[in-house]
Amino acid sequence: MTRNTPVKTVLKTGLWLAAVASLCACASTPAPAPAPQAATETQVWAERVKVTPAPDEILLMVHATGLSDNQRVALQALVGRWLQAEGRELVVTAPSGAGAMAVQVRERLIFLGAPAAHVRIVGADPSLPPEPVLRVGFVRYEAEVPKCGQAWESLTATRDNKAYENFGCAVAANMAAQVANPEDLVRPRDMTPADAGRRDTVMGKYRRGEITSSARDDQASGAISKAIP
User: What's the rounded Cα separation, in Å, for the pair 153 and 168?
Assistant: First the structure.
C-alpha cells in the first residue's frame, strides 16, 4: 500500500474485513444442543422394574419307538404355556443320535398349534456331559414388582422442595404386575409380515388406472336411519 492511500479507505477496508470475519464466525458456530428433559417420577420407577428370563423346559427320554403318551401330554401342556406367555421360539435340543425323535417332537409341536417358523431343532452343547434326553422349551420373562412405601421422607426436613421418593412407584408396580408379557418391557414385538395379497391387488388396480380404495357399502355411509321406531 502506498503513502498516497487515503486514511478513510484504510478504515473502510479494515471494517469490511472485520464484518466478514464476524459473519464467518457466526456461520461456523453450531447451535447449542437442547437441554435434556428430566425424567418424571414414573419413568424413574419404570427403569427400576427388573425383567429376568426364566426358561420353561421339559426333559424327554429318548425312545427308539418315538414319543410316549406321557410325553405327548407334556408337550401339549408346554405349548399351552408357550401360547399363554406369548413366547418367541420353541427350541428342541437333541443329543447325538436323537435326530429322528427330535423331528417327531417338532412335528408334534407344530400339530399342537406352534407355527413352524417358531420351532427350531439344535444340537446339544458338546462341551457339556452327554445326557440321553431331549430338552424342549422356551424362554419366558418375569417382572419383579418393586416394593413401594418403604420410606416416606419429610419434605419439611429436607427443605429441597422435591417430590417424594415413592412418587411413581405404584404406577410402575401396577404396570409390572398387569403386563401380559413382561418381555414387552424389554424390547418391542417383531413386526408381522406385510399382506402381499392385498398389496398385489392394490398395485394391480393402480397399474390399470382403477380406484385402489376398498368398496364402500351402505353401512359405512354414516347416514341416519329413517325407520320409525
Answer: 15
> What class has domain 53-141?
alpha beta
What gap in Å lies between CA 85 and CA 182, rounded to an integer? 9
- Note if the pTM is more than 0.90: no
Ordered by start, the domain boundaries in the chain are 41-48+145-186, 53-141
Count Cβ atoms below 10 Å from residue 140 Cβ, excluding itself: 19
The Cα 69–Cα 99 span in angstroms is: 19
Alpha helices in the chain (DSSP H): 7-28, 41-47, 69-85, 99-111, 155-158, 169-178, 196-207
Q: What is the pLDDT of residue 79?
A: 92
Spatial separation of the C-alpha atoms in residues 229 and 218, rounded to whole Å = 20
The kind and range of the H/E element at 56 are strand 50-61
Closest by CA position to 136, among listed 184, 96, 181, 104: 104
Pairs from 183-186 (Cβ < 8 Å, separation ≥ 24)? 183/51, 183/86, 183/88, 183/140, 183/141, 185/46, 185/49, 185/51, 185/143, 186/51, 186/141
Locate cell 424413574: which residue? 44
Q: In this predicted model, what pLDDT tens digit does every residue of 131-167 receive, in sequence order?
A: 888 899 998 888 887 777 766 666 666 666 666 667 7
C-alpha dist (Å) from residue 227 to 112, 221, 224? 50, 16, 9
